[in-house]
From TrEMBL:
GO MF, one example: hydrolase activity
Listed InterPro entries: AL/BT2_dom, Class_I_gatase-like, ThuA-like
Domain of life: Bacteria
Residues of the 3-keto-alpha-glucoside-1,2-lyase/3-keto-2-hydroxy-glucal hydratase domain: 299-486
Name of the protein in its database record: Glycosyl hydrolase
Stored PANTHER family: GALACTOSE-BINDING DOMAIN-LIKE SUPERFAMILY PROTEIN, SECRETED GLYCOSYL HYDROLASE
Sequence ranges assigned to domain ThuA-like in this UniProt record: 15-226
Organism: Wenyingzhuangia fucanilytica
Length: 500
């Protein structure tokens, strides 16, 4: 049975609340549905309640912004329905799960990675203390004290909660009895996975949970974030270091397809060109392509071997910021680029799944990091921007060369001048981006200005002004250090003369 509630002329956020069970059925599902119905009426959302798996097809799912698994359990989708759900979410849609969402589709690897955990066991229902982490700036926990006591059924997970999640609340195992994980025990988190915006809380077993204003506020803000109404990261207008302390707090690693020449890995395709095939995936770096060298002050230098294509990818999305870093080349080069210039890249406004460009990188704008070409612009995977250029011919081929007085053209553009230091020397690279306008700066000199950043979607081009940051491994040894970022509310006035 399909139940739809909405508010005329209200916010268009559309949510599918799915509560099908193929295992244990929680009595709290009905109170949960009532709570979400009331929330939707108050917030002006359109919400659809269903337990019909046939809705999981491209046409029906396209009507929604957020998919909410309300205490689902067991194997509830067939293979085609799983593919439809995956396709839907990787287009930048939202997913919210409560409690038993981690006790669902546990044999579907992609779903387990989407959630970040899979149910294993639980003790009896009882009170426990949650330690709240507000450092991410997520509104889902902004209303909570640093420690909060809840009564619930506390899930243990089969494996440690995935490294790629951003933890908002951790269960204090010293405050309850029975089966426990015996390690750090996250219970509420959010993250971006394969293009989807994912929010999960282990709360919500009991019917009474859905009368607790603390949980209801958490779900409200989780839905807002998953739908794109709210952003999480509150970026300071003072420099924030991104390589200080534990790198896994700020960065994930995605490793692409090993080239046929890569040694020491099992099952490398003897015909692999380093692009086609199955990537090694998220936070799976058996060749240690990305290494962090920590100094006495807790600052890290990233050593990228380049042996396999890959990306150092920020956990957070950023918008309207000034990014600054230092980069220098190492000596080693690898197939399939032994005869090419040493190459890397600073990718920004990265959105969607990994693997959109060369089966490893996200859709993004690129500030090129390549020998002699630092500061060039490349558009990856469906992104583009407008750049003032003059057209010139190189080897009989037309090339767009940056010229502030030139006409606007979209797509890849070469810088007009070189300001790069000799190999082995540290170069300072800066990216300033605000409301779709960006500046590429190398060693204090503006290489080019870009405008109208956008991406191509099924509905045409839309603005592309926010996303993750990625640093490429691209078959060359390279080092990065002193990566820092701060928010801006305009392009700094000192750069106005470089704007068209």
């Amino acid at each position: 049975m399909l139940m739809i509630f909405g508010v005329i002329n209200a916010q268009k956020t559309s949510i599918l609340v799915f509560s099908k069970t193929a295992g244990f059925r929680h009595k709290s599902i009905e109170p949960g549905k009532k709570a979400i119905e009331n929330m939707a009426k108050e917030k002006g959302w359109k919400v659809t309640f269903s337990e019909d798996s046939d809705l999981f097809n491209a046409k029906d799912l396209s009507a929604f912004d957020v998919l909410f698994f309300l205490n689902t359990t067991g194997d509830i989708l067939n293979d085609e329905q799983q593919e439809a759900m995956k396709s839907f979410l990787t287009k930048g849609k939202g997913f919210v799960g409560t409690h038993a969402a981690t006790d669902t589709e546990m044999e579907w690897e992609w779903y387990v990675n989407l959630l970040g955990a899979s149910f294993a066991s639980h003790p009896k229902q009882q009170k426990a203390t949650l330690h709240i982490n507000k450092s991410h700036g997520h509104k889902a926990v902004a209303h909570l004290n640093d420690s909060e006591e809840f009564f619930d059924e506390w899930y243990n997970f089969k494996n440690p909660v995935a490294q790629h999640v951003n933890v908002l609340a951790t269960l204090d195992e010293s405050t309850y009895t029975g089966k426990q994980m015996g390690i750090t025990h996250p219970i509420t988190w959010y993250h971006n996975y394969d293009g989807a915006r994912v929010f999960y809380t282990g709360l919500g077993h009991t019917s009474e949970s859905y009368s607790d204003e603390r949980l209801l506020k958490q779900l409200e803000e989780g839905i807002k974030w998953a739908s794109g109404q709210e952003q999480a990261t509150v970026l300071s207008n003072k420099w924030t270091p991104l390589l200080k302390g534990d790198p896994s707090q700020n960065w994930d690693v995605f490793i692409g397809v090993p080239h046929k020449t890569v040694k020491g890995l099992p099952n490398v395709d003897p015909n692999s060109n380093g692009i086609k095939g199955e990537p090694l995936g998220l936070n799976n770096d058996p060749k240690n392509v990305f290494n962090f060298i920590e100094d006495k002050k807790g600052n890290n230098t990233v050593h990228i071997t380049g042996e396999v294509y890959g990306a150092l990818s920020s956990k957070q999305e950023y918008e309207n910021y000034h990014l600054k870093l230092q980069v220098k080349w190492g000596e080693q080069k690898w197939e399939p680029r032994l005869g090419d210039l040493r190459d890397s890249g600073l990718l920004y406004h990265c959105v969607g799944p990994y693997r959109q460009f060369w089966n490893v990188w996200m859709r993004s704008q690129e500030l090129q990091i390549q020998e002699g070409d630092i500061g060039d612009y490349y558009a990856l995977g469906g992104a583009t921007a407008d750049v003032p250029v003059k057209l010139t011919s190189v080897g009989g081929k037309e090339v767009k060369l940056y010229d502030l007085n030139g006409d606007f053209k979209s797509g890849n553009t070469k810088k007009a001048t070189d300001n790069e230091k000799k190999n082995g020397k540290w170069n300072t690279v800066e990216l300033i981006t605000y409301n779709g306008t960006s500046l590429h700066i190398v060693n204090g000199k503006v290489m080019m200005s870009l405008y109208n950043s956008r991406e191509k979607t099924a509905d045409g081009f839309v603005p592309l002004t926010r996303g993750k940051i990625q640093i490429q491994s691209e078959a060359a040894e390279v080092y990065y250090r002193n990566i820092k970022i701060k928010s801006i509310d305009k392009i700094p006035s000192k750069y106005k003369k470089y704007l068209k």
